[in-house]
Amino acid sequence: MARTFTYPRPRPRGLLGRRLEADEQLVLGAGLVGGLVTAWILGGILLKIIGFLLIAGTCAWATLAPYRGRTYVRWFEISRTYRKLLRDGSLLYRSRTPHAGRYADGRRVPVDVPAGVPRNMQWISARTAFGEIAIVLQPDEQTFTAAVEVEGQRDFGSLDLDDKEALIRAYEHLLKITADGGGRIRRLQWISRVIPTDPNAHARDAAERRDDSSPAWLHQSYDDLIRRVAVTAEDRRLLLVVGIPYTPDLVAEARRYNTLHEGYAVTLGQEIESFIRSLGRGQLRHVRNLDESGLASYLHHAYDPGHWIDDTTGMDRATCWPAVLDARNKQYMASRSWETTEDAWYSKTAWIKELPVLPAGINFLAPVLLYLQDIILSVSVVMDLVSTDQAITDAMADATNELGQADRKAGRIEDPREQKAQSASIGTMRDIADGAAGVRLAAWITVTSPTPDALRRDADTVRAGATRAGLRLEWCDTEHHRAFANTLPFTAGLLKEGRR
User: Fold this and answer.
1) In whole angstroms, how far apart are CA 441 and each of 111, 310, 355?
2) CA 166, CA 483: separation in Å to the nearest integer?
3) pLDDT tens, position by position, 373-390
């Protein structure tokens, strides 16, 4: 019998069991106070009731009732921010890199970043036993991030059930030791990048470069080599990004060195090196560190897939951004590289707002990650690592909430969906107690296409694949520039612990 994983059902959209944000609480409170004041001012019982219900009911509807997939209050803030950015020109980005120049010591002059990308970032180069790695400090988020390229177990689908479960347990162990091991890494981001390629490109290039005057044995040898080379129609890359919070302890340790920059490089380099050494426990193979040129090349490729990921020539913290990014269209954003003159790439991003509510197999994401053909996409999963004690506390609170919402009146048949949610909450609590890792996660999918028509077609294909995988998507209209950054290697897309 195949092993299954059950994800807890999302909390209902009502008042009970839903954490309201500050603006939503303000609207509800204002509606209640406004309704009471109106009832106090008006004369007559009927007018008082009508006035109270009109004001309080309108505010309650705007805050709680579904509206275009969200609520009116949430769309109001999104639309307001979009109009503000549209007025000040932030949604049309043009890079100033060609005119910024360099300092006398060769350092790049900082340039503005596109809308949605973390501001005021500082790049630090650290050395590890596995090579140099770029560490990015995000002051606004108070976190450091670094990325490495890894590979998982090859031919995972062909393994038998016992081997698959062993790999899953090894991965759970990696998360657990990272969360409970006393290290500084508190967040992980997995980015799966899928890029269609031409499997016949090598053969055509060899035919174009063939020299007829070469000896026959050389032609025969090269033809045999081409037949032996295994070329796939897709290039798949897996990035693992670590997030380290900016803490007073980290600053105190960094101050032991000559400069803070040097202290951060040494301290964080040792932390990342220790983490890379532990990847083998999760059955992951370290491929390479992303240094400044490697990270810059990946960022540039994300905006313009025509730029190859491994082409690091001239790539640094300034040239990593696109030449032009136009996010004024509500349905998508368009970006263009310096390497092209007119053609732009169009991207749109979806938030995975619901994971499967029914038991799912180990390969439940295969319809998205494996079965989609000829589509450029990035799938990002951001995880906050939660210690075992905190995870059990949160699971107990969730189970208590689910049991408290159950309506068990005499003579009423209990909703089977509520029974499943209660069982999932209790099962999660027991799994954590048995040693499973505790994580809080958010997931995003970005689709990129060469034309708007192709983008609509590819987005529909991705939505169909997500439906087969038991996922529910919500396209981030008017916010594609900000949601796109959640699939970049910055561990974004998930609120920091303690922020509401």
Assistant:
1) 32, 29, 11
2) 35
3) 889 999 999 998 877 666
